[in-house]
Amino acid sequence: MKILITTDVYVITTNGVATSVKNLIDELLKNGHEIRVLTFSETHHSYKDGFVYYLRSMPFAVYPDLR
Predict the structure, then answer these.
(1) Quick check: is 61 in a domain?
(2) Most Cβ neighbours (<10 Å): which of 5, 30, 50, 60?
(3) Which domain holds residue 34?
(4) How many domains does the chain have?
């Protein structure tokens, strides 16, 4: 099955959401699914790294660590 996972955080960030998404992806890959992840980059540039697509983003003034 082809699956697209969208998330505002991925392995760059260490928190419960990022860990849960990573664990989910690992299990789906083990079961033979084709995974793509769509998330925000830490820069003003979009790029692809393996099956992860990073979209350019800008800091959010109220919460500078969020994009």
Answers:
(1) no
(2) 5
(3) 2-44
(4) 1
